[in-house]
Amino acid sequence: MKSTSQLYLLDGSSYIYRAYYGIRERATADGVPTNAIFGFTRMLLGLMQENRPDYLAVVFDPPREETFRREIYPDYKANRDAMPEELAAQIPYIKQILQALNIPSLEAPGFEADDLIATLAHRHAGEDLLVTVVTGDKDLMQIVNDRIELLDTMKGKRSGPQEVMARFGVPPELVADVLGLAGDASDNIPGVPGIGEKTAADLVQGYGSMERVFKWKDQVKGKKRRENLIAFEEQAILSKTLATVRYDVPFDIPLSDLQRQEANLSTLIPLLRELEFETLEIAFTPPPPDLVEIYSDGSGRDSGPGGYGVVLRYGKHEKELSGFEPVATSQRMELLAAIRGLEALTSPKTVRLFSDSQYLVRGMSEWINGWIRDGRLDTPDALANQDLWKQLVPLAQKHQISWQWVRGHAGHPFNERCDKLAKRAVDAGIQAANPPQVVIKEEKNIPDPVEPEIVRVKDYSEFGTEDDGQLRLV
């Protein structure tokens, strides 16, 4: 259970452009482009599933011509192309989906999304609320503190004060000083000619702020650098103003209005069907009453580390399971995923179990009765992975189960989610098994390290296959 509530503020423009350029040439049968809509919705779904924020809002930019930065510097972002018409046509659909999901879409006239995000983040961050800003924009690193962090979902990276220091060489509150000196080519902010980001960071770190750099500019090394600081001081001041986010946007919205609510399925599902988003419809549609859906996937190969991921869905509830095995094969982890999913059921249920493993699905729906009849299930070494099949059969017999195969890595939201869970479990397991080594200096008489014994499970990859899909062992 989370001890602290979580507010997620999503930079809508950043997400939309990433979706548009990340997925190309997707359209309905009638030729309506949907690549940005699909990518945005899928990324939003993943964000909600993986992080489960208590509060959530998507913040959009107004037209760039209508912001205060453009008023004080007409060339601000003038180097950027206009939004592609194909993308602009998809924005209304994206906002319809947000409305159907009951996720607020926020926009402040005259201010950019960064300003509104900064205002809301600082207003609400506190002892009982952590704020995560979902963006790939480095400019927002200036708002980070111990209660506000950034999340770049494309890189899977979170940035707190330490990450900001590593990126800019200065703490968050001095990021705008660095950008004031160095400028920002992506926003067409000029800065001081001849001063790049690294030099700017060194100057700000050494003198304490951009203003102190100018106060002591006569002491700055390099004749040309000093001349540029003298000649372009006003331009640097303007650049810092352009780069500094605002915390005073006049935008009143109570935190309660940002609280996560259930989606309006009567609006959402027809919209997803209109856009021909069948896989996303699955993700947002709860299972029928009295049915448990289990999605499972395993990750492993060549008798190395393996992981499994499971998602159980029942009514409006979901549960995630994952685990790690130091020695495993892909087949074993697929079976183990199904075992762990069924073990989570405390009473007999009607179950629909989905997997991208034909080995599992065909084994349990087609081949298992033959194995039981001819005694292969109980004959030692008669079946590959016999120990797991013997665990799986009695578990399955407790429930009324239909086994269904789904195509792996084909955009299915739950298969991909289970795959991520499995791979993360592998990464976490390997990290836990191999903690960072502590280097002890000047230690004498240290014995040579002993190579650990490598344990391998049986590798049946070179054997043929029987008619029932089971591997030949002789």
- Overall helicity: 40-55%
Q: What is the CATH class designation of the largest domain?
A: Alpha Beta
Annotated CATH topology of the largest domain: Rossmann fold
> What would you call the shape?
elongated
Distance between the termini: 51 Å
Per CATH, which architecture of the largest domain? 3-Layer(aba) Sandwich
Report the oligomer: single chain
Mean pLDDT: 88
Structural class: alpha/beta
Helix segment tally: 18
How much β-strand is present in the residues?
Answer: 5-15%
| Order of H and E elements | EHHEHHHEHEEEHHHHHHHHEEEHEHHEH
Largest sheet: 6 strands, mixed
User: Strand order, biggest sheet?
Assistant: 3-2-1-4-5-6
What is the rounded Rg? Answer: 28 Å
* Unreliably modeled segments: 440-464
How many extended strands?
11
The CATH homologous superfamily of the largest domain is named 5'-nuclease
Number of domains: 2
Features:
single chain, 474 residues, 18 helices, Rossmann fold, alpha/beta, elongated, 2 domains, 14% strand, Nucleotidyltransferase, domain 5, five-stranded mixed beta sheet
Would you kindly provide a written description of the structure presented here, covering whatever features stand out?
It contains 18 helices and 11 strands. Strands 3-2-1-4-5-6 form a 6-stranded mixed sheet. A 5-stranded mixed sheet has the order 9-8-7-10-11. By secondary structure, it is of the alpha/beta class. It has 2 domains: 239 residues, Rossmann fold; 189 residues, Ribonuclease H-like superfamily/Ribonuclease H (Nucleotidyltransferase, domain 5), CATH 3.30.420.
